[in-house]
Amino acid sequence: MEITKDLASKLLRQMMEIRQFEDKIMELMAKNIAEGGSHLYAGTEAMAVGAMAAINPDDYITSTHRGHGHAIAKDGDLNALMAEILGKKTGVCKGKGGSLHLADVSKGNLGANGIVGGSIGMATGAGVSIQRLKSSKVVLCFFGDGASNQGLFFESLNIAALWKLPVVYVCENNLYGMSVAVHRASAVTDLTKKGLAFDIPGENVDGMDVLAVRETVGKWAEHARQGKGPALVVGATYRYYGHSRSDPRNYRTREEEKFWKERDPIVNFSRKMIEKKVFTEADVNAIEEDVRLRIEAATDFAIKSPWPEPEELYTDLYV
Does position 1 have pLDDT exceeding 70, yes or no? Predict the structure, then answer.
């Protein structure tokens, strides 16, 4: 598969933005500048970036509690995203959503939430709206391996298959639901089999390979766009940090972590593009430095931004 320098640059830049953004959030939490819960996406960048590169700008996504990477890959504004996580008025949700409820409807990001599997119902509902409006859009529904054990997952897949909804269910299988290994929580470890009861086609993909994710999700997004119904894509991936800041990762071996970090999506994609002469090493370094400066600028913007006014508590409510 041929890849242009422009596309390669976008993919690498977005993966670097996610990695550096998440590293910065960890730093801000250590300094108590960022407060509350925050579940980091570092290590999983190829899933969000590859999947988003396969759809149109006006297509929809639904996200998870580990949603910063999805928001950035959906062309989210770094300043507004960083400000939101710090609870500032200039945030993408005016400081009211924070890390767990990032959303930007103007970009097609229908939002993250703190409920395991919550994105699955949201995406299925969005699929109904697309169908009734006779639109050509599709929805990418991101969720984790743990969410595939929820009843909502099976209920949603059933109705999506029955009504041929334009939803691609994208499972980010990072091997652990919080601290429980997938093989200890799921009767089947090939999670694509969970769609078989509804005749939903499924495909496994290397979730550490941004180009493989882009190709696989793109194929099934087109399948959904043509009115052929939903699909289930499962990407094998790995989060580098613990489930949250309080997680010491005692349930993982250092050998396992080393194995996955040797498959780092940023390092390996950069190396591949240099080998193919799409990039020079200087190109990669220049992108990395530019991203560093933009993350620093976003952090400075967020820290200096004002807090929401107390009277704004009761605005922007849906109920």
Answer: no
